[in-house]
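Weekly structure sync, notes
Attendees: PL (lead), two postdocs, one rotation student
Agenda item 3: pending single-chain targets
PL asked that the sequence for the first pending target be pasted directly into the notes so everyone works from the same version. It is reproduced below exactly as submitted, 71 residues in total.
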Amino acid sequence: MIKVIEVKAKRGLGIEKDPVREITQYWDIEENLLAERDPDPQLLSDQVIWESKRLQNIIENHSKNQKLQQD
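Predicted structure, written out during the meeting:
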C-alpha cells in the first residue's frame, strides 16, 4: 500500500464541447500524478482516436524502416 492524495478539481470552459465538470486526480506524496478520472465521454473518445492514430504512425514508420533495411 502507498499513501495517495486525492484531489478534486473543476475542468472545462463551460461550453457545449467542453463542459465544466469535476475531475479526480490521485497523486503520490512525491507529487507524481498517478491517475486521473475525467467523466467527459468526449475526452475519452478523443484520446482513443489520438492513440489509434499515434500507433498507426508508429507501425507505418516501422514497416517503412524494415523495408528500407531489406533493400
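Discussion points:
- Residues 40-71 form one domain.
- Helices lie at 41-70.
Action: rotation student to compare against the earlier draft before next sync.
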